[in-house]
Amino acid sequence: MRWRDEGIILSLRPQGESGVVLSVLTDGYGRHLGFHRGSGAKAPWRQPGTRVIAGWNSRSEGGLGYWALEPAEAPALRHFGAPPKLLAISAATALLDGLLPERMPVPEVYEAALLFIDGLGGNEWLEHYGRLEECLLRETGLHPGGDFGEGLDRLNRIGPALTEAAKSLGKPLPVARTLLISALQPRLR
Asked: Which of 4, 31, 35, 137 could form a disulfide with 143 if both were Cys (CB 3.0 to 4.6 A apart)?
């Protein structure tokens, strides 16, 4: 089975002496795992958040495939001097990698992730991160409804105060929201 699509690298883990297993979120095929040859020194762009043109090849539909990747944009390298943006890239890719099922297309989440990555150069990147997180929660069924969704709805009613708290903490809005959810959890029930 072979296909080619645009994607975003979500995570990588070493495999063998000179390769890695990459998790890549694509527009048309969802999150896929695959092997990519080459050491980190030969591919410094191979970082979470990097946009790629991804070619995937596997002998069987369910097997671990091989990636042929071409870097399109590496925001981690571009924003190396901005720790909050690097933290947001890391948090976003970890959430996507941890919550999305494998091989299920999620075009809305993919579009929200692209908007976030493209928006890192501007001033609205925190809002884009919040939209990505909300889209991910909707797609995974965690929002709205259930205790978690109701808690977020209650916290969203205090939006202006939450935004100010995030600014004063120097944390992205979702991180501040998570800190507040943890602190207010007993009161939300």
From this structure: 137
